């Protein structure tokens, strides 16, 4: 590594989701927002967060700033993603490590989880959380997209293969990654039942009497990367 | 946010996986390592990486440092996790944003992907990558764990529910998160076929003639968090 790197400040932000009734009575995903009292973006709504202190871990900073601003103390926080675009914060570069958690609705009670804000904190239906400070709109969009895609299956192994592959080739990749043999008949049943691959109508070439069928992955926006595209576009 | 935060330097590291033949002939997951030429940890093997420059994005810093040290230029890099323990780097706090990619073995060729290191770069079987500089052992263990767990299904919805729930309750959570109705019979078939839940033998209490069965999630270490435990332990 070369000489002194440029000054970049490190912060944390938290995105907390709960299923709560919206004003129209529908159950929707909500998150808590805090109204900023100082510049930049004084008066705008933002994600709970703050600076990372010298001797605390990143997750402790997430827990501390969340508890200080909203009173929420979820049993765990999961690191979601780190946002660090050079221009995301006016007045100097800030990298924000974003933590997230899902909470039950009783955990949200008493922390402003109703139509009236409590102490600058208000729970907002996620699709209404727009016009926030900094790049928090983008952070929220990403967090809800992650949640929605995670309820479905992750597609990984086809990133070690080309566009077309036999089921045996697919199984061998799973076996190499998991370091354990997989029963071919069960594997076939699971994969064909998952809808993750479709036959191409072509067969592997070669001298065999009945060469195996070739398949391709069914790619969705959520599965476009090896770790399930676990990151925002670009 | 309060006054000036403490000085924390920001770096990137990259973990690149390829399926390559090991010396014993078995196909295993490998990754490229670089032998450090300066302190701290001069002479030790480490992940490719470096400081983030003032005007570049985090992913560009990952791409640039990877290309500069190994010649590798994968078509995308995915942000894996940010490591920021206060004591991970001697001589002052460094937060490292780790990027990862899977590459085909032909992309690894010519960049030291054989038994002899090329220009301080050597591809190492992932389970042999120990004794590395900084906390890079921990980063590698986490990356391979993520890869191995991602080939299986992510379990999400039960984090909005209690320990026991009916299939209808589970379906309603999926519908609220995905914002679309799901056919109950298909949903039941998918969930029962996935092995993600098991019946508890109990039924929902109530006055109905045949109250619905209660199920619980089959939790594995990989599924212990709402986003599939996508983070290292603590």
Automatic annotation (TrEMBL), chains A, B:
Domain Nudix hydrolase residues, every copy: 7-148
Superkingdom of the organism of origin: Bacteria
Pfam families the record matches: NUDIX, WHD_NrtR
Name this polypeptide is given: NUDIX domain-containing protein
């Amino acid at each position: 590594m070369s000489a002194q790197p440029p000054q970049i400040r490190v912060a944390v932000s938290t995105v907390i989701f709960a299923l709560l009734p919206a004003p129209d009575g529908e159950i929707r995903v909500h998150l808590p927002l805090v109204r900023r009292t100082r510049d930049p973006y004084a008066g705008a709504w933002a994600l709970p967060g703050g600076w990372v202190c010298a001797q605390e871990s990143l997750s402790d900073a997430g827990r501390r700033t969340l508890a200080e601003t909203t009173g929420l103390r979820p049993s765990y926080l999961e690191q979601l993603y780190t946002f660090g675009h050079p221009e995301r914060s006016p007045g100097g570069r800030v990298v924000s490590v974003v933590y997230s958690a899902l909470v039950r609705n009783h955990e949200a009670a008493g922390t402003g989880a109703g139509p009236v804000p409590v102490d600058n904190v208000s729970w907002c239906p996620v699709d209404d959380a727009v016009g926030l400070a900094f790049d928090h709109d983008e952070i929220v969009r990403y967090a809800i997209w992650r949640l929605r895609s995670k309820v479905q299956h992750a597609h990984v192994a086809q990133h070690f293969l080309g566009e077309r592959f036999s089921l045996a080739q697919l199984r061998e990749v799973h076996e190499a990654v998991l370091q354990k043999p997989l029963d071919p008949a069960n594997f076939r049943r699971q994969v064909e039942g998952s809808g993750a691959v479709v036959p191409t109508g072509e067969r592997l070439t070669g001298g065999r009497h009945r060469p195996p069928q070739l398949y391709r992955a069914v790619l969705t926006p959520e599965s476009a990367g090896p770790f399930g595209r676990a990151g925002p576009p670009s």
